[in-house]
Amino acid sequence: MNLQNDIKEKKEEINDQKNINKIHKNSNQIKKKTSKETLDYLMRKRDREISMNENIKPIKNNFNNETTNNNNNNSNLNCEIFSSSHNTSHNNLFKTNYKSTKIKDYYTPTINNSRNVYNSPLKNKNNKNELVNINNYNNKNKKNEFEKLSYDEKNELLKLLKEKDNIIEEKNKEISKLKETIKYNENTIKELKEFSEIQDEEIKRCRFDIIQFLKENQNIKRQQKKKWLYEQEYKLGKILGIRFSSHGQIKENYDEGEAIIEINEQLEKIKYQKEELEKQKRKHDYNKKKTKSNLDHSIYQNEENEEEKDTKDILNYKMNIIQKEENELKEKKSKLELEKSIFNRELILYNQETNCIFSQNKEGFPLLDKRYQIIGLIGKGGYSEVYKAYDIVNHNIVACKLHQLNQNWKDEIKDNYIKHTIRENQIHQEINHHNIVKHYGTIDIDNNSFCTILEYCTGPDLSSYLQKNKNISEKEARIIILQILQGLEYLNKLPNKIIHYDLKPENIIFHNMEIKISDFGLAKIIENNKDKIQLTSKGVGTYWYLPPECFQDKKDVFINSKIDIWSCGVILYEIFFKQKPFGQNMTQERLIKDRVMQNARIVEFPNKPVISDECKNFIKKCLEFRQEDRYDVFQALNSPFIKQEKKNKKNVDSS
After folding, report:
1. Which of 392, 508, 608, 637 has the fewest Cβ atoms within 10 Å of its own Cβ atom?
2. Mean pLDDT for the chain?
3. 120, 148, 176 — which closes off a domain?
4. Is the same domain home to 623 and 516?
5. Is residue 216 part of a domain?
6. 237 pLDDT above the threshold of 60
């Protein structure tokens, strides 16, 4: 019995122990469950409180009462659970003194004046969940408000919502279309950029090829020109030097070429033949007289010796043949002289180009401003050089006038040069007339030089034209002077009149059968609508083409645009007679020393060629000594000599 009782007691103890273990397990589960539920519940309540409006105070009070009751219940429940000896990880939140405190003390909402801020040990640092809960609460409130509306109000709201949805859908479609358009445009822009890059590369390559072609072509031309110069030098000769006579006249020391030597030898032979024929003629005449004296006069008149008559005819025939040969040789020689003058100009230009500023470049002539490829030298003055260039952008030929300051000059010359070049650039860029060379722009090269881009004229200049064409008609000369006067008329009608001051055949250029005035390096401006200005730069210009007032010894000398009219008179005189009216073959120094221009009062005309009285009077009025008596531009244009051409022009235009 005792054994059975012991076994029974043992079983009961085991059962009791099992029950205790179950109780412990259940208590732990209840603890976990209740603590989790409590926390979730409190978080929900807290979220509600955040979204509540301050005006809803009764709801807040009820809410607070409910939370306090629930917290009390939960505190009692937790007190029972925490009395157990089995603690879990969640027990770390609640200490042994939990019985004397309430959960509300751990979780108390506080309201700030600026915004609702709730402090709690259970609060999560990340506010995203709080915002989601607030939005959920707001949606619930809106739902409650929607449910309170009437049926019609709900329908109206639904219609509005549908309309808004339709509008949103349309806008979304438009947005999608715009996105597609933007995407298409972006692709198009990308393709265009790629195409533009390809084209830019192609343009660069083409421009490079053009530059290389121009350089190669220029090198070939230079070689051909060099060969031609050697041939012409052998044929025509060359200048050994220039000397001045005691009277200040210029004389060239020339080594004649083979062609000219041969013609000179033939002319010498013809001269000898002519002398021999003259001797024979004189001898024949002497014999004739002697025979005449020996014979009776009546018999001599009736019976002339036929043999002597035949001899005379033969001598005259020979003389005529020799005279024709002489005329032909002289004509050939004059042509050779013309060729010689052209050859001398080309030789001088070739030597100037060989020694020009760009001659030291190993790569040849440069590309200025990444646009203007220099081809060759056109001409060189005292202070500037003019080059022929190709514009690789507009693909046309231009003229580049290079102005460079020489560091070896004196300061006075430098200042004067800078003043003249700046003034020339300012004057020329404001001028626009078909009888004046156009000014396209200015580019800087370095600190001591710049370049003006000008209209390229095919030429020749009037000086070369007069050398090639010995006999120019009065009508042609009138047309040339008329175009020069039209350009001067434009300069005199500007608000500030312009005096060219350096008109001469070298500065009158032909271009497409039209006359162009060039080189405004010495130009002067008459400002403020005045009629004259004081001459401040004496000693400049080309003396043969300047009037007497430019050589006066006075301090205060005033000049006007009639200076250019004097130059026109000299040019017209030179067109006809191939010489200057004053100081022909004299140096400028000799002109000053002999005071030639100060005494240029009377114009003398050679006998040949013959010109009309209107032309003579025009030249005289242009070359009047006193400024007051001289033509101005408008009087010159209305003169009988020029008016005649205007009438002819009007008749041609009307027909």
Report:
1. 608
2. 78
3. 148
4. yes
5. no
6. yes
Do 419 and 475 lie in one domain? The reply is no
State CA 203 to chain mean position distance: 17
**74 in Cβ contact with 34 (< 8 Å):** yes
Task: Yes or no: say if 108 and 71 are a contact pair by the CB < 8 Å rule.
Answer: no
**pLDDT score recorded for residue 71:** 45
| Count of Cβ atoms closer than 10 Å to residue 492 Cβ | 17
Separation between Cα atoms, residue 182 and residue 361, nearest integer Å: 52
What count of Cα atoms within 13 Å lies in the side-chain half-sphere of residue 488? 28
Both 361 and 268 in a single domain?
A: no
What number of residues does the chain have? 655
Tell the burial category of 269 from Cβ atoms under 10 Å away from its Cβ (0-12, 13-18, 19+).
middle
The contacts found for 310-317 with CB under 8 angstroms, 24 or more apart, are 311/284, 312/281, 312/284, 315/277, 315/280, 315/281, 315/284
Q: How many domains does the chain have?
A: 4
98: DSSP letter? G
375 and 315 in a common domain: no
Gyration radius of the chain's alpha carbons: 57
Q: Which residues are catalytic?
A: 502
pLDDT of 405 reads 80
Most confident of 40-44, 193-197, 405-409: 193-197
Residue 357: HSE in the Cβ half-sphere, 13 Å Cα cutoff: 21
Please give the distance of CA 654 from its chain centroid, rounded to a whole number. Answer: 41
% of the chain surpassing 70 pLDDT? 71
Distance CA 643, CA 482 (A): 9
Q: Which domain holds residue 287?
A: 257-354
pLDDT of 97 > 80? The answer is no
Pairing of strands 396-404, 449-455: antiparallel
Pick the range with the lowest mean pLDDT from 132-136, 436-440, 541-545.
132-136
Q: 126-140, 303-317, 318-332: which has the minimum mean pLDDT?
A: 126-140
